[in-house]
């Protein structure tokens, strides 16, 4: 049996704002087996990026509640003191490619040095040794060593995104979190970056979390899929099961919205908006948009396990309908 690299249980992240408490991540649970990729999909503001921030523990100052369990290779990492977490976990074991990161490269430093810098700062390597290691990583990501001496403005968007991936990979992390890594790229470059990520996954047996609003893109690389809605995971399971036989009405609507080349069927649109995460509805958070809602939906649904690795959060199943 493949062991889990990541086990998340009852994870919460709330923010305090002047308008009230934002329940950004509200009691989510999932596993990622070693070498596999979990796609996290959902509309903007549903808690995808906040989930990533809880794992790499980049919590804003206005964090109001950070609770739950995150086990990396069986080790609880939420309770590790922050200094130790920075020294031993962040970047070394868990690295992240942030949304829009390719636009935040330092314009006055050569990209080779920017990729090598974590080795100098965190591992105390000397500069030439670190640049050698950067050169090896550049080859893996499809850039010749000549690129080490380029500045960010000399590179295209796709090349800059490769550099950002190299920065995340330089310390050989076990888990790589990618937050919308292709959203700013045109489709042909997007395809190249997806191919690069798939080859890195295979070559390094790398476990990944792939965050996107694009469920079709997630299906290209993911083994598992978590569908998030209003701070909760409403469905989680193996990608084929969730895509071919979605159980939650929101997951069904998301999948029905994907345009299909070989079918006449028009994509469906989901009317309405998600609820605000300050005082969200007490019952099912999808109820105002759900075509199947019924009386019981005024109560919050529990997780219902469809099988060993596939759950849904919906009363339709707890009611046995
Ligand atoms: Fe729809 Fe009720 Fe299921 Fe929510 S719990 S998704 S409202 S059927």
Tell me what the structure shows.
The protein is α/β, with parallel strands linked by helices and 321 residues long. Helix 3 runs parallel beside helix 5 (157-169). It has one domain: P-loop containing nucleotide triphosphate hydrolases (Rossmann fold), CATH 3.40.50. The strands form two sheets. The chain has an eight-stranded mixed sheet with strand order 6-7-8-3-9-10-12-11, sandwiched between helices. It has a four-stranded antiparallel sheet with strand order 2-1-4-5, covered by helices on one side. The protein is built from ten helices and twelve strands. The longest helix is centred in the middle third of the chain and has 18 residues, at 187-204. The chain is 31% helix and 26% strand. The radius of gyration is 20 Å and the shape is globular. Helix 6 links the parallel strand 7 (175-179) and strand 8. Bound molecules: iron/sulfur cluster. Iron/sulfur cluster is lined by residues 249, 284, 286-287, 290, 292-293, 297, 301, 314-316.
Instruction: Give the tally of structural domains.
Output: 1
Average residue pLDDT: 92
Largest sheet: 8 strands, mixed
The separation of the N and C termini measures 33 Å
Can you name the CATH architecture? 3-Layer(aba) Sandwich
Low-confidence stretches: none
Gyration radius, in Å = 20 Å
Which molecules other than protein and nucleic acid are bound?
iron/sulfur cluster
CATH topology category name: Rossmann fold
Strand order of the largest sheet: 6-7-8-3-9-10-12-11
Q: What top-tier CATH class fits best?
A: Alpha Beta
